[in-house]
Structures are given as C-alpha cells and as structure tokens.
Amino acid sequence: MVLKFAINWFKMNSAWIKEFPDQERRHVVFYDQLINNTRNELEEVMRFIGFPFNDGVMKCTLANSEGPFKRQKENFNMPFNNKSMAYMKIVKEKIIKMLKHKTLSNA
Fold this sequence. Notes:
Blueprint lengths: L1 H18 L11 H6 L1 H12 L5 H9 L18 H19 L7
Helix pairs in contact: 1-5
C-alpha cells in the first residue's frame, strides 16, 4: 500500500513540476523538513508568498501548532518498513532532482 501511495505522490508532484516549470512560481514543502526544521521551512514559505517573517510569526506558529486536525500520537503506527522507507527515499530524491532542473528533459 505504501508503494502505491509513493507512486501516486510521485505522479502528482511530477504533474505540478510540469505545470509550473519556472522555479520562481513553485515552492515544495516536504513534511519531514517542515517538522525537523520548522523555522527555516516556514521562513522559506513566507518569503515565497511575499509575507514578512519574524520572531512573532514563529511564536504564533508554535503557539498554534496543536489543533483538532492533528493526529493523536498514541494512535499512530508507522506504516513503513525498512524496504518502503528506502523506496520513499528514492522517490523523494527523484522529485528533488526534478525540482532542481529548469526543465524535465533530464529528469
């Protein structure tokens, strides 16, 4: 099941890259980077959409990071095994490579 979702995720991101080949018109946020490096990722998103970023924005984000939409940690079971994690890493790296190219001809 994870592999099927990885393929669909790849197809969706590939379609977006094709639709917006100009790197100035797209910004991709990877969940793991947002979680592991929240400040830098949020700053990049704010810069992309043309909003100022400061400590107040960061404090507001952290103060409001919980909500009814958030998955309860105690109920979460990691669906990935080592094989599917390795596959996801390959798929993510391919998307990152595509994002760095101005065109998809080399992807």
